[in-house]
Amino acid sequence: MRRKLAAGNWKMNGTGAALSELSALIAVHPHPSCEMLICPPAPLIHRAAALVQGSALAIGGQDCHANETGAHTGDVSAAMLAEAGATHVIVGHSERREDHGESDAQVCAKAQAAIAADLVAIICVGESLAQREGGQTLQVIGAQLAGSVPEQATGANTVIAYEPIWAIGTGKVPTLAEIAEVHDFIRAELTARFGAERAGAVRLLYGGSVKPSNAAEIFAVSNVDGALVGGASLKATDFSPIVAALNAA
Ligand SMILES: O=C[C@H](O)COP(=O)(O)O
Hints:
This protein is of the alpha/beta class. 41% of the residues lie in helices and 16% in strands. It has one domain: Alpha-Beta Barrel (TIM Barrel), CATH 3.20.20. The longest helix has 19 residues.
């Protein structure tokens, strides 16, 4: 049985004052039936992890370098995130793939580094609007999965997040049938590669304009094990009903 995961990605938002949102979240959901995760900007991870210690809320990073150490100005290693208190890290988010030209191979190397540092790698995949309109969605997702998911992936160390790029921060959401089609496809691809038991343990998150108003219907979709939420994770008052919907799913 896969444990559901409500994950929030603050992206480049939030200063120390925003940490009060974590306290509010813990207060509303002291013992959720799903896992709760917030990925704040890197400078806040240590403080955030100290604040949530002993609670049901976990803290993650938004990216890591593939190497353990070295001359990589501005980058952060997976081990550094873990030492700061992170338990998860997002890799291959479309904003990283686009802003930093990250390839599937680089995303795969980052996921391997995360797993080696005992972090759960949340590997993002997703098609652009042009790719969807061109009927290439499953082909694109299949190639991203093949290139970005490392051989050692298991349900314990890897989560896959499906985020259609055109749905991120736009208020546009695929139909439930479209979400189901991609999530079922991802499950099938993982099953073909890793076998049913191993693939069946990997959680699949949907991301892209998840809000309190649409969370429940998305969580009822086949093979949706939770969400990776951007904008609506910044405020506890928005993220909390999403957690509640997942708890109830
Ligand atoms: O990582 C989160 C996603 O990019 C979704 O962002 P959004 O919920 O603001 O659309």
